[in-house]
Amino acid sequence: MTDDAKSFLFDLLDTPSPTGFETPGQRVWADYVRPHVDALETDDYGTAWATLSGSAGDGPSLMFDAHVDEIGFMVRHITDDGFIYVNRIGGSDRAIARGLRVRVLGDNGPVTGVVGNTAIHIRDTSNEKVPKVHELFVDVGAEDEDGVHDLGIRVGHPMVFDVGPTELSGPRITARAIDNRLGGFIIAQVLERLSDDPPAWTVQGANSVQEEIGGHGAQMITHRLNPDAAVAFDVTHATDSPGISSAEHGEVRMGEGPAVTHGTSTHPQVVQRLMQVAEENDIPLQHEPSGRRTGTDTDSIFKTRSGVPSGLVSVPLRYMHSTVEVVDTEDIEQCVQLLTAFARSLDADDAFGVSL
Ligand SMILES: [Zn+2]
Question: Which of 144, 145, 206, 328 would staple 49 via disulfide (CB 3.0–4.6 Å)?
Answer without folding.
Answer: 206
